[in-house]
Amino acid sequence: MIQVDKVTRDVGSFKLDNISFESPDGEYLVVLGPSGAGKTMLLESIAGLISIDSGKIFINGKDVTKLPPERRNVGFVYQDYMLFPNMTVEENIAFGLAMRDTPKSERDKRVQEMMEFLGIDYLKGRRPRTLSGGEKQRVALARALIINPEVLLLDEPLSSLDAQVRKKLREDLKKIHEKHPVNVIHVTHDQIEAFVLADRIGVLSQGRLLELGTPEEIFKKPKTEFTTKFVGFDNVFKGRAKRENGITLVQVGDLVFQVISKKEGTITFAFRPEDVIVSREKLKSSARNQFTGKITEIIDEGPLVRLKINVSDIIISAIITKKSFVDMNLRHGDIVTFIVKTTSIHVL
Amino acid sequence: MFLFLLFPIVNVILITSTSSLVSAIFDPQVQFSIFLSFYTAGIATLIAFLLGTPLAYVLARRNFPFKETIDSLIDIPILIPHTVAGIALLTLFGEAGILGQMFNSMNIRFIDTIFGIIIAQLFVSSPFYIKTVRESFEKIDPRYHNVARTLGATPSKAFIKVEFPLAAHSMVSGAILCWARAISEFGAVIILAYYPPIASILIYQRFVSYGLSSALPVTTLLIFVTVIIFVIIRLVQTKFQEEYK
User: Cis bond leading into B65, ω under 30°?
Assistant: First the structure.
């Protein structure tokens, strides 16, 4: 269990402001926030890598506020993994045990077990620079998990991977946590990541923890304006999936979306507002997900314009450039057609 | 420009007669002075490594008041004329200087001893080491250190196991630079320790006392020996760097 109690750190231009939360045993907590919200600083405070001005941090009931990082027993995985380039994969993973003076025979055994657990034993003698992003991430996880940390801190662990690998590793993180139910605090700016992985989500903005709740609470009933803006406008839907002639169709209210997935039954999918293509006329296109709706809201965001389009009482959020907004001469209440490319839809 | 840099060196070698070069090789005084140059420069480099590495690390990693000032002060030995450096050292390490008196009680003197040579070489050459290594520490992401700490390493262990090996090749580069600069030092050394003569001073002595023809063979020999040693070190370093990647 982690307790963060009124933690404050002021570095002049930025402040972690009076952050308090509790995370019960085995919880996967995702801290969601835009870049510059203080996510890394929060993790580094919990790890003891930076000092805090006031407040207290407890790990499993023990006050660790004054302890140096090497005595807190936390696992830390950075965004770009920070594998020691001067060591092999095996040496990287064994590092924490070597620091604890674990006997060589036991160390070898545990490293082997950990590599097998994460399916990376084939990487044993390799150097970090020869690994792919996904492999690096697993090695970094293995290195952090082998010390049996009381809390695992993940700093944007999926952000530097490409979309395909990211999805796979997201699933893997979930499985690993199920098998190895350690307290996790995972920070990210990616809403989908938060939605899929989190037992609970905390929303961080400008150094303040705005709200904390289950993914459903945060995504469906956000309490603050910031959260609403940050997560609420994105297109996340639940529906019933059915396979027909090799394609999967999902029914959401009166709308039918075609998605790329082999799943059936209730599924959740999402797409980004910038992947919605808006037009005044019906498009002659092979794209399946073509809908017509009414503009209910226009939000000027500088070079971009965000539209909310109502289609059979389902609100879709779209982002277009200011130029195409002006070219199409769009107004509140206009009827528009839009397309969501099947490949842009992420099935969770 | 390249020719301008190369030509004087080649010319010196070309106009030296082989027989005078051979006799220089077997001249015990020449042998001794070249050995002395390399030896004292080696000690100076070792001291630069031992004391300069922590300083380079602190300058790269920590923020503290007057850091910028300290940083620019390190350049001063490089900027001032080396005779000035020699005189400055003399006022401190000479018989009447504060440090001179302190070391005197331990029976260490700097005037006309190898300690004087080493001090003079260290003063003018260590900034090269410190700057090179500092730069390399700055390039190492501090998060390596952080990760090592969370895995149970104390600050010094994290330094030894992670940052030191990562900076090792630049320490070698810095040490080569430092050593080369120490060998070639003349101005500061001549003020503190005219005797025993290191190679650069021996060449000067012979030039002043016996003329150019007497100084030439020693000059050429020094060029040869220095170039050979540097080529060897570079080769070893490249090999080491490749393996290390």
Answer: no
Strands (DSSP E) found in A280-334: 290-301, 304-311, 314-321
In chain B, where the domains are located: 2-244
What is the distance, to the nearest Å, from the Cα of residue B196 to the centroid of all Cα atoms in its chain?
18
Q: Which of B71, B110, B72, B75 is CA-nearest to residue B93?
A: B110
- How confident is chain A (348 residues) per 10-residue block, as mean pLDDT? 94 90 95 92 95 95 95 94 95 96 95 94 93 93 95 92 85 90 94 89 94 86 76 75 88 89 83 86 76 91 88 90 90 91 80
Give the single-character DSSP code of A282. P
Write the residue in B150, B162, B165 that is nearest to A69 by C-beta: B150
DSSP string, A50-81: S--SEEEEEETTEE-TTS-GGGT-EEEE-TT-
On the CB side of A214, how many CA atoms lie within 13 Å of its CA? 3
Place of tokens 């000027």: A300
Q: Output the pLDDT for position A288.
A: 80
Q: Report which DSSP code applies to A230.
A: I
User: Is the Cβ–Cβ distance between B206 and B154 less than 8 Å?
Assistant: no
Q: What is the DSSP letter of A283?
A: P
The full DSSP string for B141-189 is -HHHHHHHHHTT--HHHHIIIIIHHHHHHHHHHHHHHHHHHHHT--HHH
Contact map slice: A 47-76 vs B, CB within 8 A: 47-49, 68-70, 72-76
CATH architecture, range B2-244? Orthogonal Bundle (1.10)
Q: Report in angstroms the alpha-carbon separations of B148 from A86, A97, A199, A273, A348.
A: 13, 11, 29, 40, 35
Task: Kindly state whether A129 is in contact with chain B, defined as any CB-CB distance less than 8 angstroms.
Answer: yes
| For A79, nearest residue in chain B (alpha carbons) | B143
Question: Is pTM beyond 0.90 here?
Answer: no
ipTM: 0.81
Comparing CB atoms, the residue among A47, A49, A96 nearest residue B152 is A96
pLDDT tens-digit map of B141-167: 999 999 999 999 999 999 999 999 999
Q: Is the CB of B144 less than 8 angstroms away from the CB of A82?
A: yes
Q: Which of B62, B136, B143, B150 to mutate to probe the A interface, most A CBs <10 Å?
A: B150
CB pair distance less than 8 Å for A84 and B154: no
